[in-house]
From TrEMBL:
Interacts with renin. Accessory component of the multisubunit proton-transporting vacuolar (V)-ATPase protein pump. Interacts (via N-terminus) with ATP6AP1 (via N-terminus). Interacts with ATP6V0D1; ATP6V0D1 is a V-ATPase complex subunit and the interaction promotes V-ATPase complex assembly. Interacts with TMEM9; TMEM9 is a V-ATPase assembly regulator and the interaction induces the interaction with ATP6V0D1. Interacts with VMA21 (via N-terminus); VMA21 is a V-ATPase accessory component. InterPro entries: Renin_r_C, Renin_rcpt, RENR_N. Its main location: membrane. One of its GO terms (molecular function) is signaling receptor activity. Keywords: Cell membrane, Cleavage on pair of basic residues, Endoplasmic reticulum, Membrane, Receptor, Signal, Transmembrane, Transmembrane helix. This is Renin receptor. Residues 272-347 form the Renin receptor-like C-terminal transmembrane spanning segment domain. GO terms for biological process: positive regulation of Wnt signaling pathway. Pfam families: Renin_r, RENR_N. Residues 14-264 form the Renin receptor N-terminal domain. It comes from Oncorhynchus kisutch.
Length: 347
């Protein structure tokens, strides 16, 4: 009990953002600076070396090296708990305004900048059976169980986490318990697939992973947050996430950022459209109920400069040609008039 209490003292009370792993050139500063939930995607984009529309005025992340960026970013969102005992971390920050967020904007940036290199983009929420895969993820994670039925059948196969986890008070036949164990199985299978495809860490395109786990939230609803089942599941998930972060960090050769967001409950329900970010954009912008402008295109500056200078060059060319034509002497500057003038003289 004393050891558990000592571990709980090391984490930030309330909803939190914990940086489990990060390379040395991604500079996270230790402190109690709160970060808003809606700024998490911008923070992830900056750690990967991408630009954002608005400056992130948050002292927890400093500007890193210009020509060095991590090869992967793994974000795990844990719902139903405000903090986890993760003592081996880089830094931990309070999370304020825990509104729902997605990494769709970061995924679109990765896909647009590294489309030819086919980077791995994986966004998964097992409880909602929500899956987004792009690039090499379609080939690497094609065997990853997605639906709850597939994951539960995976629990009865060889290599299941049930053989190695201390279930204690958890019941493998209960619905809420199975959901939690299924999410743990997904974490285990992701690291196993990454170990099988180690070549992913050798390419030049960054990989993006986003996982959302809600098994603890269901256990809290089913048994209560003071129950033994909830406490056992919290301890299991903390140990699993600690090892999961170390495995991912090691597979990418120390060039990966692993973050864990723990949130008791989101302030508003998250509404998402079932679509692929590869689909063509419509002419109108129906996805914005506030009549907002379209997202910034990184090719805008290039196209703008090409059109601008081409118009300036053409305008200058027209002015120079018009000036020379206006001041031209037909008898000397034009070969047509010159030949005509000689013919008249001969006659």
């Amino acid at each position: 009990v004393n050891e558990s209490f000592a571990l709980m003292k090391t984490v930030t009370l309330g909803d939190s953002l914990t940086i489990l792993q990060a390379p040395g050139y991604v500079s996270f500063q230790k402190g109690d600076w709160p970060i808003s939930g809606e700024k998490i995607p911008d923070m992830v984009a900056l750690t990967m070396g991408f630009s954002v529309q608005e400056d992130l005025s948050w002292p927890g992340l400093r500007a890193g090296q210009l020509f060095q960026r991590p090869r992967a970013n793994m974000l795990v969102v844990v719902r139903g708990v405000d903090s986890l005992a993760l003592p081996q971390n880089v830094a931990s920050y309070p999370l304020e305004n825990p509104v729902p967020f997605t990494l769709d904007s970061v995924a679109e940036t990765v896909h647009s900048l590294f489309a030819e290199d086919t980077p791995v983009v994986l966004q998964l929420a097992p409880s909602e059976e929500r899956l987004y895969m792009l690039g090499k993820a379609n080939a690497v994670f094609e065997d990853l169980p997605v639906t709850l039925q597939q994951i539960r059948s995976r629990l009865s196969q060889d290599g299941s986490v049930l053989a190695s986890l201390p279930l204690n008070s958890l019941n493998r036949n209960a619905e809420a318990d199975l959901l939690f164990l299924s999410e743990v199985q997904v974490l285990h299978d992701i690291t196993a697939l990454l170990q099988r495809h180690r070549h992913l860490a050798q390419d030049h395109s960054p990989d993006l992973y986003s996982l959302e786990l809600s098994g603890l939230e269901e256990l809290g609803r089913r048994y209560g947050q003071d129950s033994q089942q909830y406490r056992d599941a919290t301890a299991i998930l903390a140990n699993v996430l600690q090892k999961f972060g170390e495995d991912v960090f090691g597979l990418y050769g120390g060039s990966a950022v692993v973050e864990v967001v723990t949130v008791k409950s989101f302030e508003a329900p998250l509404t998402r459209k079932s679509r692929s970010i590869l689909e063509s954009k419509q002419i109108s912008n129906p996805g914005s109920p506030y009549n907002l402008a379209y997202k910034y295109n990184f090719n805008y500056a290039v196209i703008f400069n090409i059109v601008l200078w081409l118009m300036i060059i053409l305008a200058l060319a027209v002015i120079v040609i018009s000036y020379n034509l206006w001041n031209m002497d037909p008898g000397y500057d034009s070969i047509i008039y010159r030949m005509t003038n000689q013919k008249i003289r001969l006659d």
